[in-house]
Structure formats: structure tokens, C-alpha cells
């Protein structure tokens, strides 16, 4: 109940076929929101910088072969691994949450101790504890994901591909859609899903026939909460369409909107 009235950043996901212009649109959107004074961070999946991400990258470049289900699970694992806070912070957060809950330490004291961490996002997050002196929120804080921490500290995340890509691309290969959705369960659900129509391009998946199948899979996943952007028009027009839907979304999240999980 408390969470629903809390101001936070928005989780914005851009989806679409290969070469639909998502990446350049994410950059443009980032600058737009930044210019409006929002605190923004851009993410993308697959995140090729992690160990799992490197396996994915070599698969996509046709440098390695993997079973369809195995690569599906790697894409999913790549999203789960990004949930993780550092061990050091997780341990700290849980001990502090306990202290705050049992009133052994004031929030002020805890904030003070946090300064040693040097990561201002984490500091920002725990600073918010003074409006939740009861400590129950702090308890929760100990177990929350990196993504949720960012959102609750007011950061808006623009994510270039997410679980929908995972399901759309794998089910386009013939895997059962429900099987594809299962490992994504429990990841945060986006506040805005914008799907771009149009475009395809030289990595593994970039053949026209396959892209058609992916488009069909996206269709299956799409419901009324998705915003469809026509990506065939000039980039500036696409940009304007995106700005419009995103502006509404960030305002709603600013006013306070509860977070939910996939597949709700
Ligand atoms: N892809 C991407 C998947 O098959 N499953 C996923 O979960 C994700 C996130 O990877 N053709 C596919 C879609 C793309 C390819 O993505 C690489 P990008 O955005 O080109 O880096």
C-alpha cells in the first residue's frame, strides 16, 4: 500500500525486430528525458559484458553452436544476473535493515555509515529510509534487485530488449511459448512496452523469413498495454511517437505506481 504512493523512476522497454532502430531511439530517448531533468540510465539485453553475455555474443556471431533451449536459458540468465546487487551491499543492507527494524540504530546513523560505500545511488536509496522509519521497508530493501533499487531511487531505465525478445525469438524457432516464458517469471514487469514495427538486418537471426516468425510471436505476446510505434517513418517521427508515450508513463510513475512482476 505504501509503495503505491511512492514516487519512482519508470521501467521502459523497447522491443522490435532486428534493425528496427531501437538502439538509436533509446539514445534519443535518453537525451530527451535527461533534458527534462529526469535521472536516466540505459540498459540493453543481451548485456554482452558479463560471462553469460560473452557466450551469447559468440553464439550470435555464429562462433559457437548451442541447443535452442540452452541459448534461451542463457538469454534469461543474462537478465537474472543483472538483478544482483554486489555481495558487499547486499550483506550491508540486510544487517542495517535488521538494526533499523529493531530500532538499534537510527536511520541517520545508518546513512552515516553508508558513506563509506561511495556509490551515490546506493546512498540515495538508503537515504530514503528516513521516510520509512518503521524499518519494514528497510527489511524489504535487503532483498531487492538492482533494477528495483534503481527505480525506487528515482532512476528511469530505458531497456533495449527484454523478456519479450527472449520469448519472441525462441518461440519463433518452434519452442513452446509457455516453456519460453517460464524462466522469465519474477523479473520486473515494465511500466511501458513499446514495440517498433519494421526493419531487419547480418547476425544469426537476421533472415527475413525468421523475422516474420518473430513478428508473429511478438503479436501473440502483445496486449492492450503495449504501445506500437511505426518504425518505418522518418527517425524524427518515430522519436516523437516514443516521446509521447514515454512522457505519460514517467509522470504516472513519478506520482507513484506499484511495481509488478512478469507475466502480469
Ligand atoms: N535476442 C535478444 C534473443 O533471441 N533473446 C533475448 O532474450 C534477447 C534479449 O539477440 N537478434 C536476440 C535478438 C537479436 C539478438 O540483440 C541480439 P541485439 O539487440 O542486436 O544486441
UniProtKB/TrEMBL annotation:
Its EC number is 2.7.4.9. One of its GO terms (molecular function) is nucleoside diphosphate kinase activity. It is an enzyme of class 2 (transferase). GO terms for cellular component: cytosol; mitochondrion; nucleus. Pathway: Pyrimidine metabolism; dTTP biosynthesis. The keyword Repressor does not apply. Keywords: ATP-binding, Kinase, Membrane, Nucleotide biosynthesis, Nucleotide-binding, Transferase, Transmembrane, Transmembrane helix. GO terms for biological process: dTDP biosynthetic process; dTTP biosynthetic process; dUDP biosynthetic process. This is dTMP kinase. The chain holds residues 145 to 408 of 426 of the full protein.
Amino acid at each position: 500500500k505504501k509503495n503505491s504512493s511512492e514516487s519512482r523512476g519508470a521501467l521502459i522497454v523497447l522491443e522490435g525486430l532486428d534493425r528496427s532502430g531501437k538502439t538509436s531511439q533509446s539514445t534519443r530517448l535518453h537525451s530527451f528525458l535527461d533534458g527534462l531533468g529526469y535521472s536516466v540510465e540505459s540498459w540493453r539485453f543481451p548485456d554482452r559484458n558479463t560471462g553469460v553475455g560473452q557466450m551469447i555474443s559468440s553464439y550470435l556471431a555464429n562462433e559457437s553452436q548451442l541447443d535452442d533451449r540452452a541459448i534461451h536459458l542463457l538469454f534469461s540468465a543474462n537478465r537474472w544476473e543483472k538483478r544482483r546487487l554486489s555481495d558487499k551491499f547486499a550483506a550491508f543492507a540486510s544487517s542495517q535493515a535488521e538494526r533499523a527494524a529493531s530500532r538499534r540504530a537510527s536511520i541517520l546513523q545508518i546513512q552515516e555509515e553508508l558513506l563509506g560505500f561511495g556509490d551515490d545511488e546506493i546512498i540515495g536509496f538508503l537515504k530514503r529510509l528516513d521516510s520509512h522509519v518503521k524499518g519494514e521497508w528497510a527489511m524489504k530493501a535487503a532483498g531487492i534487485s538492482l533494477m528495483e533499487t534503481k527505480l525506487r531511487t528515482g532512476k528511469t531505465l530505458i531497456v533495449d530488449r527484454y523478456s519479450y525478445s527472449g520469448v519472441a525469438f525462441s518461440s519463433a524457432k518452434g519452442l513452446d511459448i509457455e516453456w519460453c516464458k517460464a524462466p522469465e517469471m519474477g523479473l520486473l514487469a515494465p511500466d511501458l512496452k513499446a514495440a517498433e514495427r519494421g526493419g531487419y538486418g547480418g547476425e544469426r537471426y537476421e533472415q527475413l523469413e525468421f523475422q516474420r516468425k518473430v513478428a508473429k510471436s511478438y503479436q501473440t505476446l502483445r496486449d492492450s498495454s503495449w504501445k506500437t510505434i511505426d518504425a518505418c517513418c522518418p527517425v524524427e517521427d518515430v522519436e516523437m511517437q516514443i516521446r509521447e508515450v514515454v512522457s505519460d508513463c514517467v509522470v504516472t510513475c513519478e506520482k507513484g505506481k506499484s511495481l509488478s512482476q512478469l507475466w502480469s
